[in-house]
């Protein structure tokens, strides 16, 4: 009798969708769940201005009553302990956060968010970018 197929483990497939496509899908999810209040968190990662502009386009051209609670642009240099980062993240009033940054920056931002109590139940983060995959180990 033939033996059953062996499980090889799951494979993480990263599709190279554009930032605009990712944002369109995220806004569909936000609309579906009636999560209309959100904030944008970004670093100085290349393309962040286009990201912020496209969020404005999506919200301004929509009939949904979006409550855009502002943009927080983080500068992660000269803050090795993450003290300023934790303080800045606490000042964001929305529980829904759209984050645009590099993979390395995301790890630092989520570490600070966990330490500040902003990564547990009640907080929803959408991480956007074309450069977040490419590793066997996903950030915590």
UniProtKB/TrEMBL annotation:
Locations listed in the record: Membrane
InterPro entries the record matches: ANF_lig-bd_rcpt (IPR001828), Peripla_BP_I (IPR028082)
Domain of life: Eukaryota
Keywords per UniProt: Membrane, Transmembrane, Transmembrane helix
GO CC entries: membrane
Domain spans labelled Receptor ligand binding region: 10-128
Predominant localisation class: membrane
Provenance organism: Grus americana (Whooping crane)
Name of the protein in question: NMDE4 protein
């Amino acid at each position: 009798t033939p033996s059953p197929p062996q499980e090889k483990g799951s494979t993480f497939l990263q599709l190279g969708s554009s930032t605009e496509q990712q944002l369109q899908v995220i806004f569909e999810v936000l609309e579906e769940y009636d999560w209309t209040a959100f904030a944008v968190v970004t670093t100085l990662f290349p393309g962040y201005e286009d990201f912020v502009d496209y969020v404005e386009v999506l919200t301004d051209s929509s009939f949904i009553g979006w409550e855009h609670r502002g943009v927080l642009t983080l500068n992660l240099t000269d803050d090795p302990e993450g003290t300023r980062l934790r303080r800045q993240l606490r000042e964001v009033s929305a529980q829904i956060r759209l984050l645009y940054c590099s993979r390395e920056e995301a790890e630092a931002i989520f570490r600070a968010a966990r330490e500040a109590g902003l990564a547990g139940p009640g907080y929803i983060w959408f991480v956007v970018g074309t450069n977040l995959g490419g590793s066997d180990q996903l950030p915590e």
